[in-house]
């Protein structure tokens, strides 16, 4: 019994720690710090619904405390029943009309924003069209109007609607960039549409928001928003074949013999694995490791140790072959 009594003493400490930990985290994956119009509209709805709920809770507790204090039995009081309000038409109207008003305040903007955010912009000529395909455990991005494809890094221009078409190559996933808007599921054999927009030049983190396998927690990607001029320059660079230096030619040959069947290295190429065009310019390897030679070596040697359950096979390469492949990959800028 004493043991349980001692445990109760730690509850306030745990509560304080939980309160402090709510302030920890990465602001680029917080829906509470919107960086685009879609995210701001959704945050407004969250604040509106939370405000109504808090108001209702406060009113109920105020009435509750008032009744406890006002009608408590004092010493010497007789057993007197307070005046009953059952059947009062006035009160019946008040506590019927007020909830209806609150529901309308919540429902009207919710329906309005839901319809607005569900608009399909895939036929909008001013929007940037992106086809997203989710894989275990990486993301493929195609720009059909621009003739390029890439993986893991989604590059977009600021202040332009990005019209997405989303699907999945294997299991159910969910595309989510918290700073720019809510999630949208990717289903096998189906195409879902939605749009996002970024206000400013920055880098945002994206995640898979649906449990999809052993490495679900590692299925991250980046959204890089650029000015329109920088975005156009990036598109042109992606279409320009990389100049392979002489010391990377051996690695290019090893890559062609062992990796090219899965990985494309050109602007439009799609394969079983991620398109590696522009690989050297990415900040992460496999979406989670820092971009350096050791990370690339670790990934090539044993992909399952980095992302359990992923579909990349363990290619039997010697150490010198891996070093050559690393040189080649680092030339794909």
From TrEMBL:
SUPFAM superfamilies linked: Cupredoxins, Cytochrome c oxidase subunit II-like, transmembrane region
PROSITE patterns the UniProt entry points to: COX2, COX2_CUA, COX2_TM, CYTC, PROKAR_LIPOPROTEIN
Membrane topology: Multi-pass membrane protein
Residue ranges of every copy of the Cytochrome oxidase subunit II transmembrane region profile domain listed in the record: 23-121
EC number, UniProt record: 7.1.1.9
Domain Cytochrome c stretches: 246-333
Annotated transmembrane regions: 49-69, 90-115
Gene Ontology cellular component annotations, sorted alphabetically: plasma membrane
InterPro entries referenced in this protein's UniProt entry, alphabetically: CcO_II (IPR045187), CcO_II-like_C (IPR002429), Copper_CuA (IPR001505), Cupredoxin (IPR008972), CuRO_CcO_Caa3_II (IPR034236), Cyt_c-like_dom (IPR009056), Cyt_c_oxidase_su2 (IPR014222), Cyt_c_oxidase_su2_TM_dom (IPR011759)
The entry's keywords: Copper, Electron transport, Heme, Iron, Membrane, Metal-binding, Respiratory chain, Translocase, Transmembrane, Transmembrane helix, Transport
Record-annotated Cytochrome oxidase subunit II copper A binding domain positions: 125-237
Protein localization: Cell membrane; Membrane
EC supergroup of this enzyme: translocase
Catalytic activity from the UniProt record: 4 Fe(II)-[cytochrome c] + O2 + 8 H(+)(in) = 4 Fe(III)-[cytochrome c] + 2 H2O + 4 H(+)(out)
Protein family membership: Belongs to the cytochrome c oxidase subunit 2 family.
Cited PANTHER family: CYTOCHROME C OXIDASE SUBUNIT 2 (PTHR22888:SF10), CYTOCHROME C OXIDASE, SUBUNIT II (PTHR22888)
NCBIfam families: CoxB
Protein name from the UniProt record: Cytochrome c oxidase subunit 2
Origin species: Paenibacillus rigui
């Amino acid at each position: 019994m004493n043991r349980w009594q001692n445990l109760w003493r730690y509850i306030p400490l745990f509560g304080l720690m939980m309160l402090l930990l709510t302030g920890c985290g990465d602001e680029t994956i917080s829906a509470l710090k919107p960086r685009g119009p879609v995210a701001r509209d959704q945050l407004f709805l969250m604040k509106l619904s939370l405000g109504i709920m808090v108001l209702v809770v406060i009113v109920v507790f105020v009435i509750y405390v008032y009744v406890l204090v006002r009608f408590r039995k004092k010493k010497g009081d007789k057993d007197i029943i307070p005046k009953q309000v059952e059947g009062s038409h006035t009160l019946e109207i008040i506590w019927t009309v007020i909830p209806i008003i609150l529901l309308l305040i919540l429902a009207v903007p919710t329906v309005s924003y839901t319809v607005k955010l569900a608009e399909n912009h895939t036929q909008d000529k001013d929007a940037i069209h992106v086809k997203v395909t989710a894989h275990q455990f990486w993301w493929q991005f195609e720009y059909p109007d621009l003739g390029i494809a890439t993986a893991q890094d989604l590059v977009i221009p600021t202040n332009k609607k990005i019209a997405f078409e989303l699907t999945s190559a294997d299991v159910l996933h969910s595309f989510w960039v918290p700073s720019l808007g809510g999630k949208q599921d990717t289903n096998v054999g189906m195409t879902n549409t939605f749009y996002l927009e970024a206000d400013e030049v920055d880098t945002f983190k994206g995640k898979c928001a649906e449990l999809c396998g052993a490495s679900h927690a590692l299925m991250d990607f980046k959204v890089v928003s650029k000015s329109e001029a920088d975005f156009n320059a990036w598109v042109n660079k992606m279409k320009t074949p990389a100049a392979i230096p002489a010391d990377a030619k051996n690695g290019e040959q090893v890559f062609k013999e062992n990796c090219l069947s899965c990985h494309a290295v050109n602007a439009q190429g799609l394969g079983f694995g991620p398109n590696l065009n522009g690989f050297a310019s990415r900040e992460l390897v496999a979406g989670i490791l820092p971009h350096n030679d050791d990370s690339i070596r670790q990934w090539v040697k044993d992909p399952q140790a980095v992302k359990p359950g992923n579909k990349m096979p363990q290619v039997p390469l010697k150490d010198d072959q891996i070093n050559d492949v690393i040189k080649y990959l680092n030339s794909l800028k």
